[in-house]
Fold this sequence. Notes:
Layout: H1 5-15, H2 26-33, E1 49-54, H3 58-69, E2 72-75, E3 91-94, E4 97-104, H4 107-118, E5 129-131, H5 135-140, E6 147-150, H6 157-166, E7 170-173, H7 181-197, E8 201-203, H8 211-221, E9 228-237, H9 251-257, H10 263-266, H11 269-272, H12 275-285, E10 291-298, E11 313-320, E12 324-332, E13 339-346, E14 349-351, E15 356-359, E16 366-367, H13 375-388, H14 396-415, E17 419-420, H15 421-424
Amino acid sequence: MPMSEQSKRANETSRRQFIKSTSVGVAGAAAVSEFPFVQTVRAASDLEIRIALVGCGGRGAGAVLDAVGAATKVIYPQSGYHTEDAALGASIERKDIEVVALADVFEDRLVRCIEQLEKVGIKIAKNRRFIGVDGYKELLEVPEVNYVILATPPHFRPIQLMASVEAGKHVFMEKPAAVDVPGVRLVMEAGELAKQKGLGIAAGTQRRHRKSYQTTIKRIHEGALGRILYGKCYWNGGQIWVIDRQPSWSDMEWQLRNWNYFTWLAGDHIVEQHVHNLDIMNWALQAHPVKAVSGLGGRQVRTGERHGHIFDHFAVEFEYPGGVTMFSQSRQINGCQNIVGEELVGTLGNSNCRDRIELYGEEEPWQYQERDSSPYQQEHQDLINSIRAGKPINEAQAVAESTMTGIIGREAVYSGQAVEWDKAMESTTRLGPDSYEFGDYPIPEIAMPGKYRFS
């Protein structure tokens, strides 16, 4: 089956820790210009980037290597020898970038991350390693840190983003932005504060950093498809990783370690994973939906306790401004047809939004021809370049809206009711416990359409 975005990242990082990338210049400025989230501040082209990571799981470790790789040159042991195996003996030439601090709830994950980083010559001082739920607060007090990577479970992202911005740090945060509406609103507020403070925020919706998507969607915005009739997007794939419970783990510890399977931690996979496709739809349609019209879904295959209480499939019909309908499907079930992608259909033709536009009556479609660079490194390179150019990217609003799109879709399926965007944005329901002590925290009930109510 096709690899998930997370698997692709892990696979790419393990094979090629770093690739040669361009420094700040024309290419970087061009990439920044594609983004509407720009705030002009004093240029700092010589700014040294001092990275701190919050959340040391596989995703966090990969993001650190991507960030360093975005501003690093690999020196291979033999001149002109650029095979993947050669990277094993390569040395690293720094370009004003350093990883200086780590934080994680669990010591074992922090230690494993340190071991991974040390393999490529990155060492973290012992007094810059922070453990516990509040470890990120100590990390944010480290004065030299100016670039924070947030890779904890999505439940924690809003409060950690706001704390990072209040501390005066630029932020790269993984997607999604939140798991509930109060979290979405807090992310939007943090984005506005970052603009006021001249701070950059980039999100892990890496498709926005691929030139193929940028070029194709620009053509769509210029009218290549005519009037848009409808759209559709999919993330139908197999099951992802699961962490079985150990006898010594409390409810809280197991759920934190197995976070993908609990709505309060991950938002369910329509929010956590399908957000990539929903983000493309919002971007291409230049709007967020006004309503989740209807939805179907359930928990048909992954029914055991090890899979928490989330659903394994969703299908949602969204309504966008102007009456445009968008059909969405997301599934995590093995042995089924896999399809991951997006499509828009207009009066003049259709497009996959990525690299192809087919016009009715024309034999040959338009095809994007260039090869994309690694989007996982490009998203960091774009943020770093924008900071150094004095025009920091701010993607908080966009990723918050894409996250909210997934949330209203989830709530429409959970409840069996239509969910309007404006009304949903008034919700005060916060998912999760009031505190995070390692003790009892029973698995929340599985949502039953017809009985569950969104509030």
